[in-house]
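RETRY 2/3 - previous attempt timed out on the joint model. Re-submitting the same 661-residue input unchanged.
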Amino acid sequence: MRLPLIVVAVVAAVWLAPLFLSVESGLRFGWPYQIFFTLVVLFGGFVFYMLRAKPTPPFKSTGKAFGSMVLVFLGSIGVIVLLANVAPQFGFEETSAGGATAEERGRALFSNPNVGCFLCHTIAGSGGTRGPDLSHVASVAGKRRPGVSAEDYLKESLQDPAAFVVPTFDKIMPPFAQRLSSEELADLLTYLLSLK
Amino acid sequence: MPPGIPLINDRLIIWVVAELHLLFAAFVLGAPIFIVICEYLGLRTKDSRYERLAQETMKIVAISYSLAALFGAAMTFVLIGKYQALANFIFGRFYPLFGLYALLLLVESILMYVYWYTWDALAARKRIHISIGVALNLVGTVVMILMNGVGSFMLTPPPSPEQASVWQLLNNATWTGLNLHRFIANISFGGFMVALFAAFMFLTSRKDKDEDRAFYDWMGYIGNFIGVAALILLPVAGYIYAKEIFAYNATISTLLMADKLAWFFVIQGVLVVLLFLGAIYYMWLSIQRIRGGVRFRSYFRGVFLVALVGLTVWLVPQNFLPSLTAESTSPIEEVAIPERVTFLGMMPAKGLAVSAVILVTAFAYLLYRQAIATGTMAWGKIDTKAQFALIFLPSLAVFTMSFMGPIRELARGQWHIFQFMADTTRESFVPPLSYTAIMAGITTLVFFLLMSAVFWLGFKVAHKG
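RETRY 2/3 succeeded.
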């Protein structure tokens, strides 16, 4: 009886905690995370339930044994396929060469070791930490300096990074005006502006 | 499926055929490694079970060998028929290598059949027979290494592939990582397939055949042990391989870990953690048939708890967006990890989590060994659920391989050979996660049907005759 209570209590905590936490606290998980944690807790409950389950006797017929094997197989694979179907999806995307968008070219530049953006900046958890996290830079850039739009701010940051340095970070970023062509700069800017 | 592309197309055919070839090839390459070890252990310990395990597994390998060759040939036909430019380049540039490959394949086939058909004839001269098995494994490993070179070349070709020497083409940036990863994975896969066979035989054996049930219970234990022992090393090999990809071109890594394929890796994480949990659960059930082993059971609750916490940290995503540039319909603070716990989505936290899962699995095995050492094992008296665990584990192992193969192929994006030969076919698209998972499920199902037929024909029908 204790196990169901523990599971219900933890699931309740997962769903009630955000009511007491503000977004500013930096600890408030959104609803997709709440579903994720709920699934994990339910799965944990299932695992501990299986530890208490009574022994299963041997099968009396080969047919039943074979049928149970098929069920275990289909159940195991079915659950994984189901999970993969409810996870976030992107649509079919044709990738024929030459069809890359400015955003895709910009992303490629960001991750290109010869350009080196990712060495100091993180996007979605991947990259360095010597510079600001750019995961949502398009939403943040417009608020950095009053009266300066996100696009103008980012353009200036790429061409003359020393003009404004985000507090708590060092002035180490080199100017990219000479290192990249104007087309490449435009692609990189398009990509950064897509990171909302 | 994008509009205008038929439901069954060239890409799907090569996808399924290549995967089935790889699955059978992994089994016929991985299983003989421990077949020879078991045969040697049988000779050394005089325990006849090792000899029987080795011989029965080799029988499955001998039948599966034909299927591996059949799907290999089918893959070549599809490549030549439908992907001519790629096939021309690969077979042309790697021509000397394919010549050597064909020769070694012939030697491997001869060794395999000699090893199998002289099992009884060389019963009195075991060392000669084991030497043939060792030679079979050495040749098989070289065959695998050669073909890994072609596969890794397509993702990480050297500069100017048209001018590079065959050695430069072969010795590309990720050849070592792929070799290491596949070698360990094949052993793990072979172990789990033996466990599957043992579970199949245990569950379908007659109730009055206690001796058979005891043997297949023991065989499942050995198969699971080999599968888990190799599985523990696999994340390290995977990390080395991923690091090589990152060093070669960071855009591939971004696509894999932070962009479109990131959620594929979340599902891969689920699969790997379930494999570890399944293995621990099998040990938990196994310990109950050890008289005197009950006192070790209490530790397992802690083991499961740590594994579940590890699972949670390993899987918690940076965000719930399908790609790096996707626009969210919900506010970003809802779908992205909160600011003060972003470390949970970073590699150090993931690394620590997976290390914890590996350590508790090893700890569970030590507990299990200790229980065996201090108690009395009642072989054949195991809970039927343990056999289900031995079906669950290979099901996931096969699905994981069928799922990871496409990820490696999709990492090339729009290229047949990365940044050298573009894929201009109309089926050149990155399939969504759901589509890829369904395809992996179909491949796994076909593989299991074929393996069931192998087990049934090789052991049930043959024994009746």
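The first strand of chain A starts at residue 93 and ends at 94. Closing ticket.
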